[in-house]
Specification:
single chain, alpha/beta, 8 helices, binds adenosine-5'-triphosphate, ATP-binding, ATP binding, transport, P-loop_NTPase, ABC_transporter-like_CS
Length: about 270
């Protein structure tokens, strides 16, 4: 089922006092303190914070993979969780990409990208393969359509994972450290591709990252978390116009922004 588009006052994602604790009794541990945030239509938001601050936990709650302990998540104004039950029909708006590409090793890349199309069945059968190839082309991976996952590089596997997430035709792309395991140069190339993808599609994108520079390069707004149990410390607007050139990272204004965030994160970690 496809939902109607969000109205002007219905942001794609609203977090309203969202919190999570794990365990029970004396073993209870807080993973995320109450956090509120509005993610706007078509914006690129990065979640940035030290290890264990609850970024992944929050992303998993937005993805409907983890129940909230308290608070509400609204998707285009509709609560994602109701009475302890996740409203699966709202999840059709989401595409997910994780650090590990999680591709089926016995399927070619094109077949992997076709899986969600077959499962969802939202395209006529004859249109599926061309659509899968178009998604691979969009992320610069058209050449590897016929290869198996273990025959290609980690960077190419992540491109394929993004293409697979896009084949759900999501309005919102949630990404958890998608390039965390890649070398610096591949990561830069993938960041450029991701920016191009965002510029072309204007999908709402949420990226969890440890990298301050990656967050500054890609995001419109950076959500900074305190050390665990984390909460949102502040939301920082990134001032650089688009498209952002690869060389932006070497400029003084970029490095000043990175340094400012670094100093804030260091201060938070010293206070913790
Ligand atoms: N299933 C779970 N059961 C118990 N504790 C958990 C579970 N998942 C996460 N946690 C705990 O919740 C806290 C937040 O973890 P989370 O993975 O969300 O942090 P993170 O900011 O994404 O960290 P990283 O950047 O290292 O991935 C951590 O203390 C973690 O140990």
């Amino acid at each position: 089922m496809r939902l109607t588009m969000a109205g002007p006052n219905q942001a794609p994602i609203v977090l309203d006092g969202v919190a999570k604790t794990f365990g029970a009794g004396e073993a209870t541990a807080s993973a995320l303190l109450p956090s509120s945030l509005t993610i706007r239509e078509g914006e690129f938001v990065a979640f940035l914070g030290p290890s264990g601050c609850g970024k992944t936990t929050l992303l998993r709650m937005i993805a409907g993979l983890l129940e909230l302990t308290s608070g509400r998540i609204l998707m285009s104004g509709q609560p994602l969780w109701e009475g302890g039950r996740c409203r699966k029909e709202l999840l059709h708006r989401l595409g997910l990409v994780f650090q590990d590409a999680c591709l089926f090793p016995w399927l070619t890349i094109e077949q992997n990208v076709l899986v969600p199309l077959s499962l969802r069945g939202h395209l006529p059968r004859r249109e599926r393969a061309p659509f899968a190839r178009a998604m691979l082309a969009l992320v610069g991976a058209a050449d590897i359509a016929a290869r198996l996952p273990n025959e290609i590089s980690g960077g190419m596997r992540q491109r394929a994972a993004i293409a697979r997430a896009l084949s759900y035709d999501p309005d919102i792309l949630l990404m958890d450290e998608p390039f965390g395991a890649l070398d610096a140069i591949s990561r830069e190339a993938l960041n450029m591709e991701l920016q191009t993808l965002w510029l072309r599609s204007r999908k709402t994108m949420v990226l969890v990252t440890h990298s301050i520079a990656e967050a500054v390069f890609l995001a419109d707004r950076i959500v900074l978390f305190t050390p665990g149990p984390g909460r949102i410390d502040r939301v920082v607007e990134v001032p650089f116009p688009r498209p952002r050139a690869r060389d932006l990272v070497f400029t003084q204004p970029f490095q000043d922004t990175v340094r400012g965030l670094h100093e804030r994160l260091s201060a938070l970690m010293e206070q913790a």
